[in-house]
Specification:
Length: about 400
């Protein structure tokens, strides 16, 4: 088996994070190989809004603007949300965020995963510095002196000075590199659907905590809301088996009828929820990024936003090292990326975990505390600003790069 070319960087997985990284690195002048088993299904404006959507924080939108893909995403089908309202079924109090208070026009945008992936994929195909290997699946990897090789399922081989695994929460590459994870199975699934409500969604992202569950309504441009309803495994089967009318009635009640009755729903899908944190992000000439490094509970809508912040930081350290004529895949360089991102990711994951546990509890003292907590946080401006800044991805490092 012959390895012909030595790429600067090989990226395994072209989900939203891997594809964004590939584009950013190619635009910065690196020679990049991308390996992805499945090209994303093409996005089509005539199709209904895909069931998988993400809430993009301003930091993610900024990255897409810099990669010159945001206009295409926004003009195809993305919806801004201006406000966020969070409340609890067991205690009084509400936490509200308003873009206007921060002098912005939106807190973030809701966009379909498939649309983002298609736009990024098309951009990858146009990039002369990117060699796209798709369909292609990595079956083994080996670190040799000054390079890392990847063997693909068709028997071919790719060599690069650095390999970045962006192959998602069940990352095979992470396992091949011998990196363990700490896991928590929430024994919950997220039910997703798009629903029509009696009243307008007010361009607001809504979130209600319920005993053992969280329910988010994300505003879509066509007036519907995309729901993410995280419920215990035992409940999921029952909720998915309900007919539409019964499901809408239960959903309306769980949402406290904030937007009136739910009058229609699309078919529903569900996804298992786990926290999966890599014990380290590095191996020789190897780094983890995105969900491969940190799978988190979706209650705060931050998974891909954290991954795109990884993209910013990894690019920054690689460019800095290359421009200083250093080996950009050296451990000291990669360590810098790990230091900058791991603490934020771990802290975020544990915060979402703690919120899920505290708000999932029905014990009365906890319930009273959390109601007081929401009211209190809502009144303490600096604390509220800190939470809002974190959700928006306004960290000192990312700001400094602008
Ligand atoms: C219900 C739900 C709602 C969510 N809502 C939000 C939200 O509002 N906001 C937010 O920020 N996040 C949200 N998330 C999280 C978000 O979807 C993920 O964080 C994000 O998709 C991770 O992107 P990724 O590119 O790291 O990984 P993935 O999307 O998992 O992509 C991995 C890629 O690697 C490829 N791959 C796999 N194995 C191999 C291999 N061996 N060789 C080569 N390629 C391989 C796969 O085909 C895939 O393309 C949500 C998650 C769920 C479940």
């Amino acid at each position: 088996m012959s390895v012909r070319k030595l790429h600067d960087i090989a990226i395994v997985g072209a989900g939203m994070v891997g594809a964004a990284l590939a584009l950013a690195l190619a635009r910065a002048g690196f020679d990049v190989a991308v390996i992805e088993p499945r090209a994303p299904k093409p996005w089509n404006a005539q199709d209904d809004v895909d069931l998988r959507v993400v809430a993009l924080a301003p930091s993610s939108v900024d990255l897409f603007v810099r990669l010159n893909v945001w206009n295409e995403i926004a003009s195809a089908r993305a919806s801004a949300y201006r406000r966020m309202r969070v409340w609890d079924a067991l205690a009084p109090g509400e936490l509200t965020f308003d873009a206007a208070d921060e002098g912005r026009s939106a807190l973030g945008f809701i966009a379909e995963n498939r649309l983002i992936q298609s736009v990024l994929w098309n951009a990858l195909q146009r990039e002369s510095r990117i060699a796209l290997h798709s369909p292609g699946k990595v079956t083994s990897t080996e670190s040799l002196s000054g390079r890392r090789t990847l063997t693909l399922d068709d028997g071919s081989s790719i060599a690069a000075k650095l390999v970045v695994a962006a192959d998602g929460a069940d990352s095979a590459l992470r396992e091949m590199a011998g990196i363990g994870t700490s896991d928590r199975d929430y024994r919950q699934r997220a039910i997703v659907a798009h629903v029509t409500t009696e009243r307008a969604h007010e361009i607001t992202a809504w979130q209600r905590f319920l005993p053992g569950a969280t329910l988010a309504f994300l505003p879509l441009a066509d007036g519907r809301s995309s729901i993410v309803w995280s419920v215990p495994d035992a409940e999921v089967t029952r909720l998915l088996a309900l007919d539409d009318a019964a499901f809408c009635a239960e959903l309306g009640a769980a949402f406290d009828f904030r937007l009136g009755r739910i009058t229609a729903t699309t078919p529903r899908a569900s996804f298992p929820l786990r926290m999966k944190l890599a014990e380290r992000y590095l191996a020789p000439r190897f780094a983890l990024i995105g969900d491969a490094a940190h799978g988190v509970h979706p209650l705060a809508g931050q998974g891909v936003n954290l991954g795109l912040r990884d993209v910013d930081e990894l690019c920054a350290v690689l460019i800095e090292a290359r421009d200083a004529k250093r080996d950009f895949a050296a451990e000291s360089v990669l360590r810098c990326y790990e230091r900058r991102r791991r603490s934020d990711n771990v802290l975020s994951a544990h915060s979402f975990d703690a919120i899920n546990r505290v708000f999932g509890s029905e014990a009365m003292p906890v319930a009273a505390l959390r109601g007081a907590g929401l009211t209190l946080v809502n009144r303490i401006e600096p604390l509220k600003r800190m939470l809002s800044n974190h959700a928006a991805g306004r960290t000192r490092r990312v700001d400094a790069m602008r």
